């Protein structure tokens, strides 16, 4: 195939699903622009890649978010870019912090903050719902877990964007965007370094203090390892939840009958959130690198080939999800692929689902219905994740 899909074109980012369907049908494993990475689009092939880290290394993630011009990226050195066994040893350090018991302990605080954030939203007038709601609630939650200063919360999403998906979309001539990303890395390193010093002097009940006290193979984490861990927690705690909340509202605006149904029966919210995560997932692509020559989807890939594992396409694969382009609140079966699979399954899956449920409950209590604002919504531009960059809506009083 000589034609290459451009997965960063504005048209693709706004309407990716028809292109995904075409790729699954005609070129399930193919090279795409920019850069000639190999896109993997069918569900079974995506699952195979995620299940076999010995063939498809997560180091590809680190390479994708650490271009030479950046000068280093702590996210690129975090455990999300590592393969077993190193990944497993580090993952064990934070797994308890996101378990069922821990989630039950933090739920009252998340509920209270969601109610506070929603109570401050205006009624009867347009508001871009992303900053005061979809961003504010996840920023509070991860900031609270990590013990970050509340004054910092507004900057967390900007840092997360710039050091992950943001760096993957910078063109060679965009020197201003390069500098913004370099500044974000420097700011993040400086703040996290200062926070580590504070917690060494005065430990608190937060994840940062837990990491300082942790041992891997009998040794404490180094400063660089600690900052990489904190960066991963920041990114993982914000990106999924922010985009999930935003796309949930996009779907509810398009389907007002769903708003009425969920508002009347809150027990349907977990099923709604799971279908949101399948139908319009926050994570659309995961980078990997082949460790040896391997055949995938009828294509022979050489050793060292960079892959884009298209999770967003796999979640719409008709062979796995009948009528995949239809939002079905009663869709049966597991739909966990939005959180990855295998050794890199997202630790924060329970937390994200809880945030989504509590944030939507608070909104249902505040508003009788929602309607689109006067300005159109916009999808943000990134290679790896998808969500609304802005979403003007009107809340109508309950």
Automatic annotation (TrEMBL):
The family note in this entry says: Belongs to the cytochrome P450 family.
What are the transmembrane regions? none
Q: Which organism is it from?
A: Polyangium mundeleinium
Could you name the domain of life of the organism this protein comes from?
A: Bacteria
Q: Which SUPFAM superfamilies match?
A: Cytochrome P450
- Which protein, by its recorded name, is this? Cytochrome P450
InterPro entries recorded: Cyt_P450, Cyt_P450_B, Cyt_P450_CS, Cyt_P450_sf
Assigned keywords, A-Z: Heme, Iron, Metal-binding, Monooxygenase, Oxidoreductase
Upper lineage ranks? Bacteria, Pseudomonadati, Myxococcota, Polyangia, Polyangiales
